[in-house]
């Protein structure tokens, strides 16, 4: 039995206007897992953080854990 396990780590820019800015792969996995993690990150819905009552851009580290058996 073959298996792939690990974590895809992404740095994701959450923009003040509620959109996703850049997505940078910090740690990748094979078999399309990294690409699917990027697709998922681009579809994140969020409320921007506030600073002094105003929305601001922020960068978050997102980790997706996988354990795939085939």
What is the topology?
Blueprint: E1 3-14, E2 20-27, H1 33-42, E3 50-51, E4 54-55, E5 58-69
Antiparallel strand pairs: 1-2, 1-5, 3-4
Considering the chains and any ligands shown, give keywords for the structure:
mainly beta, two-stranded antiparallel sheet, 70 residues, 5 strands, elongated, 51% strand, 1 helix
**How does the overall form come out from the CA principal axes?**
elongated
Query: What is the string of SSEs from the N terminus onward?
Result: EEHEEE
**Number of helices in the DSSP assignment:** 1
Total strands: 5
Distance between the termini: 6 Å
Condensed summary:
This protein is mainly beta. It has one helix spanning 33-42, and strands spanning 3-14, 20-27, 50-51, 54-55, 58-69. The radius of gyration is 15 Å and the shape is elongated.
Give an overview of the whole structure:
This protein is mainly β. 14% of the residues lie in helices and 51% in strands. It has one helix spanning 33-42; strands spanning 3-14, 20-27, 50-51, 54-55, 58-69. The strands form two sheets. A three-stranded antiparallel β-sheet has the order 2-1-5, with helices on one face. It has a two-stranded antiparallel sheet with strand order 3-4. Strand 1 (3-14) and strand 2 form a beta hairpin. The model has no long low-confidence stretch (mean pLDDT 94).
């Amino acid at each position: 039995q073959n298996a792939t396990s690990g974590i895809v780590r992404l740095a994701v820019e959450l923009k003040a206007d509620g959109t996703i800015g850049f997505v940078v792969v910090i740690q990748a996995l094979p078999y399309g897992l990294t690409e699917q993690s990027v697709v998922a990150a681009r579809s994140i819905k969020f409320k921007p953080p506030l600073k002094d009552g105003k929305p601001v851009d922020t960068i978050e580290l997102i980790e997706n854990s996988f354990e795939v058996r085939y």
